[in-house]
Amino acid sequence: MYTVTVRDHFMIAHSFKGEAFGPAQRLHGATYVVDLEFCRAGLDTDGMVVDIGRAGDVLRAVLGALNYRNLDEEPAFAGRNTTTEVLARAVFDRIVAAIGDGRLGPGARAIESVRVTLHESHVASASFEGRVSAEP
Amino acid sequence: MYTVTVRDHFMIAHSFKGEAFGPAQRLHGATYVVDLEFCRAGLDTDGMVVDIGRAGDVLRAVLGALNYRNLDEEPAFAGRNTTTEVLARAVFDRIVAAIGDGRLGPGARAIESVRVTLHESHVASASFEGRVSAEP
Amino acid sequence: MYTVTVRDHFMIAHSFKGEAFGPAQRLHGATYVVDLEFCRAGLDTDGMVVDIGRAGDVLRAVLGALNYRNLDEEPAFAGRNTTTEVLARAVFDRIVAAIGDGRLGPGARAIESVRVTLHESHVASASFEGRVSAEP
Amino acid sequence: MYTVTVRDHFMIAHSFKGEAFGPAQRLHGATYVVDLEFCRAGLDTDGMVVDIGRAGDVLRAVLGALNYRNLDEEPAFAGRNTTTEVLARAVFDRIVAAIGDGRLGPGARAIESVRVTLHESHVASASFEGRVSAEP
Amino acid sequence: MYTVTVRDHFMIAHSFKGEAFGPAQRLHGATYVVDLEFCRAGLDTDGMVVDIGRAGDVLRAVLGALNYRNLDEEPAFAGRNTTTEVLARAVFDRIVAAIGDGRLGPGARAIESVRVTLHESHVASASFEGRVSAEP
Amino acid sequence: MYTVTVRDHFMIAHSFKGEAFGPAQRLHGATYVVDLEFCRAGLDTDGMVVDIGRAGDVLRAVLGALNYRNLDEEPAFAGRNTTTEVLARAVFDRIVAAIGDGRLGPGARAIESVRVTLHESHVASASFEGRVSAEP
Asked: Do C and B touch, counting CB pairs below 8 Å (3 needed)?
């Protein structure tokens, strides 16, 4: 099984609802350094899992739609806590949609699974990993 | 599948028995930087894999019971080499016990697997990963 | 010249005023991973630059007063952009005050300079370094 | 499941064929920082996944056969793009051959899978992971 | 004294002349992860050492002129070994020229010194640090 | 000013005397990841600060004399606390002696200063920096 990983980051404000969050119920923020992994059994005719240039462009576009925002005001997350786990899943869903739309190239449809990891500090991170359905 | 990871460290002395260990048969020591990963299919009602504050506290407590010690004199490891692999397993077992005891909260019982990685230097690490049995 | 460095982090929301900041004029946030360096020519009688336990406690207390906050509402920064540079200086000032107050122990008065580095992502950081005046 | 990881690096020149590679079609080069992971269900009688000294020696030897070379002139890669993915697989194949030859010791035959990750920069990496067949 | 640091990378092929280089006399290559530090005593009216967006753009442009090239064929380095030290100096000179040309904005003329560090692997790096003359 | 840095590590046991050390008064241990920096104004005729191969060999030899040892039993440290600061200074002194002995080559006598940093964990380090006297 082959994997290719690219890294980028985004910076947001948000707050959490629920006593479990303690002081993180206040409006605060985070930098998320994002590792995006693409996984498939074989390589394309160029010898690649995915066009790494396109992969970086798509990741930048997906994170750009979240970057420099207050997530408490984003309709996409209305009524939900934007924990690192929830954001990892949201980035995953948008990357999978980009694969389905062909934004990563036709060869990218052979990608079998994707993993998105968000590092929120030097001591904590969260990730979501899932299969990419062949039929979009 | 969701994963949350927290990091902490501990510092110990020990020695190894067996020619394979060469100069590491002498009394020496190590800093272990520990990555603790919790894995489960869904999130709790707060949108979390595990309460990350509790996770950090439990990891600190488990490592605190090993920290600043000579493992050659610890009854828990009598007659065994405390290799990085063995220590990763020992930390895993104690984290799983903490989940079973409810020290990570009732929601943590939904955790399906745990992975413990010990980084012993910038060029070497070891880990143990296993399932968390639902019935403690 | 000896240096000791300790690391911790804090997470805040803020916005910037000025066209130079582009989309960062919107309310967003950041995780800052902080490296705090203490520098002096000699060591104390224990062989230390500073009691590293106290150093970590003081850093945690200083960052705790900023952590999980919206800096746009903090009186200490009223009318100023809380750029990474400005925050590095603010942490520096508070650490120097802590040295003066004896919170790092009497030996810490021999510290000659302090450097505070804030890493805002895997690709950007800022720092402030200055001398610690012997007379508080 | 236990894993042990060792790290080393190599530095090569190469070029790629195919429009997808853009400017990387020109002769250029890379440093690859390599993480080699060995995985097995149990430990040997010394408490190890693999003799970590031997593992480091074998990794150095395998990378030494690639280090300081122009891969465009290496017969092993004739007619192929030496992408990070292809090189991860090549290192994997040579490590598996070393296990089969006994160069990692007789106990290493219990290794079930191997993963090779090549970090080509601070923002990109590729890996190949596969099972080690018991019958060489 | 304030410092701001931005990071990027470039990938090149080259060879060295001289017995001291051993196997590195062969054509090989490297990834250089570059840390560019700007240093000045005060901040501009926005609270910055330098416009970090412009800093990143200038660094990308400077490294882009070296990226994906065989340095043995670059006239700028004719007759010289492109060691990591020499390349750090070359990047420094080009950054200083960019400051003089106003490509980092008018405020950047207050920058007093610049440091360029090239990381060639996880275990080796080189840097050049020098003052920026006020008169271009 | 040019700097070249090489990295290696060593693993030791020790204990500290003095109430300030709390639980670190017990026998424990540490991994120290060591960054060794050489600094000089100009380059040698090969374009180097120091022969990086020799630098790595000398660092390995110096750390090898400390590696896998209980520093409480080393005569070189009798009656002293082997804090990270003290060990950084000890490595510095041995590197300076190696320069004086010509073990880094004749060109290395132009090195003006050396800095040794010991990382004891992901959150703490200490360093010693000093000038290298031209007359050994």
From this structure: no
Residue B8, number of CB atoms within 10 A of its CB: 20
Chain F partners of A122 at a C-beta cutoff of 8 Å? 122-123
Q: Is E8 helix (H, G, I), strand (E, B) or coil?
A: strand
User: For B21-33, how does the pLDDT look when each residue is reduced to its tens digit (9 = 90+)?
Assistant: 999 999 999 999 9
**DSSP H helices in F21-83:** 52-64
B and F make contact (3+ CB pairs below 8 Å): yes
Question: How far separated are the first and last CA of chain C, in Å rounded?
Answer: 22
Taking the CA atoms of residue D68, residue E33, residue F114 and residue C99 in that order, the dihedral angle to the nearest 10 degrees is -160
- A124 closest CA partner among E40, B53, B67: B53
Instruction: Count Cα atoms within 13 angstroms, Cβ side, for F28.
Output: 24
Other CB atoms within a 10 A radius of the CB of residue F53 amount to: 15
Closest residue of chain D to C122, computed from CA coordinates: D122
Say if pTM beats, i.e. exceeds, 0.95. yes
Interfacial residues of C (vs D; Cβ cutoff 8 Å): 122-123
Pick the residue from chain A with its C-alpha nearest to D83: A47
Residue D95's Cα: distance from chain center in Å? 7
The answer to whether D30 touches D12, Cβ cutoff 8 Å, is: yes
d(CA A78, CA A73): 7
- The answer to whether D104 and D98 are in contact (CB under 8 A) is yes
| Residues D40, D108: Cα–Cα separation, whole Å | 9
* Of the candidates E73, A92, C40, C97, the residue with the CA atom closest to the CA atom of residue F126: C40
Instruction: Report d(CA C32, CA A122) in Å as an integer.
Output: 10
User: Which tens digits make up the pLDDT trace of A32-76?
Assistant: 999 999 999 999 999 999 999 999 999 999 999 999 999 999 999
Distance CA B79, CA E30 (A): 47
Specify which residues B32 forms β-bridges with.
B10
The complex's ipTM works out to: 0.95
Residue whose tokens read 């060879």 = E15
Give yes or no for residue E134 having a pLDDT over 90. Answer: no
Residue written as token pair 């394309």: A44
Count the helices and strands in chain D (H runs, E runs).
2, 5
Name the 3-class secondary structure at A34.
strand
Confidence at E107, pLDDT banded by 50, 70, 90 = confident
Sign, Cα dihedral of B76, B82, B84, B85? negative
Q: Is the pLDDT of residue A104 over 80?
A: yes
pLDDT by residue for chain C (136 residues), tens digit each?
999 999 999 999 999 999 999 999 999 999 999 999 999 999 999 999 999 999 999 999 999 999 999 999 999 999 999 999 999 999 999 999 999 999 999 889 899 999 999 999 999 999 999 999 755 4
Contact F114, C33 (CB under 8 A): no
Tokens describing residue C136: 């508080």
Coil, helix or strand for D99? helix
What is the average per-residue pLDDT within F59-87? 98
Collapsing DSSP to helix, strand or coil, F131 comes out as strand
Location of structure tokens 């030496």? D82
Distance, CA of D86 to chain centre: 10
Contacts of D128 in chain A (CB under 8 A): 1-3
Q: Write down how long chain A is.
A: 136
